[in-house]
Amino acid sequence: ILQRMEAIKPLLIDPLFCLAAFSGMVLVPHFIKGFTIFFSTKGYNNIDPRKGAEAAIQRLTDADDASKKATARFISRCIGCHQNSWEALAFFTAGVLAVKAVGLGGDLVKQLSLAFLAVRALYIMLYLGGTSRPVAGARSIAWAA
Length: 145
Prior knowledge:
By secondary structure, the protein is mainly α. It has helices at residues 2-13, 15-25, 28-41, 49-62, 66-101, 107-129, 133-144. The longest helix has 36 residues, at 66-101. The two termini are 36 Å apart.
């Protein structure tokens, strides 16, 4: 077992592994949004999902129920988080591919890639759960890191 763990160790911190992991993380807010819309409105418009999300947010915002308004804000945060993650993925992909193209891949590059992955995971959690100024401030710090 220890030999197998040693064989896997380089893969776990390789920048390409981090890129693949972040590519999957980008979709997390999107799926959370979809499930939230489905369960809060009892359906999902898969024919035109963007209009469906807008309509769901509007219906929930227009409701007199405070929890439905909070759900609408959460769905909006999921959308914003998902869009921001795509933007970050483009820059991270360019950086990882540039490093690989010139043949760099030392420990510093591996550590920075892993740090980026960890900070982005924190950022996504703070973005989705951020309903207060301190959490929003922490999210901004995570974004800047």
